[in-house]
Specification:
The protein is an all-alpha fold. Helices cover 61% and strands 0% of the residues.
């Protein structure tokens, strides 16, 4: 009996080949590796992850912000994944 190959689920929860997943992470890391890319990523963090809302924030605004935070955090995770993949 041939063992089943386990599906590769990427950092973003999408199934794709491991090589393709690593390639995506390396591309993201390369985009943000320059001083300009790092400045852009820092800007995105400042308006998403580091943003604090008061008690009057609406559910809709909070959901919108959480989606933005997810995308920026995913970029950070992709960069870390690319660095881990290079060290293997």
């Amino acid at each position: 009996m041939v063992p089943k190959q386990q599906a590769n689920i990427g950092i973003d929860g999408v199934q794709r080949s491991k090589a393709n997943d690593v390639n995506i992470s390396q591309n993201v890391a390369e985009v943000f590796s320059t001083p300009t890319g790092q400045a852009v990523l820092q800007y995105l963090k400042s308006i998403t992850i580091q943003m604090v809302h008061g008690p009057d924030v609406t559910t809709e605004a909070l959901r919108h912000l959480e989606g933005q935070r997810f995308i920026v955090a995913l970029m950070d995770q992709r960069i870390a994944h690319a660095h881990r993949s290079k060290n293997k």
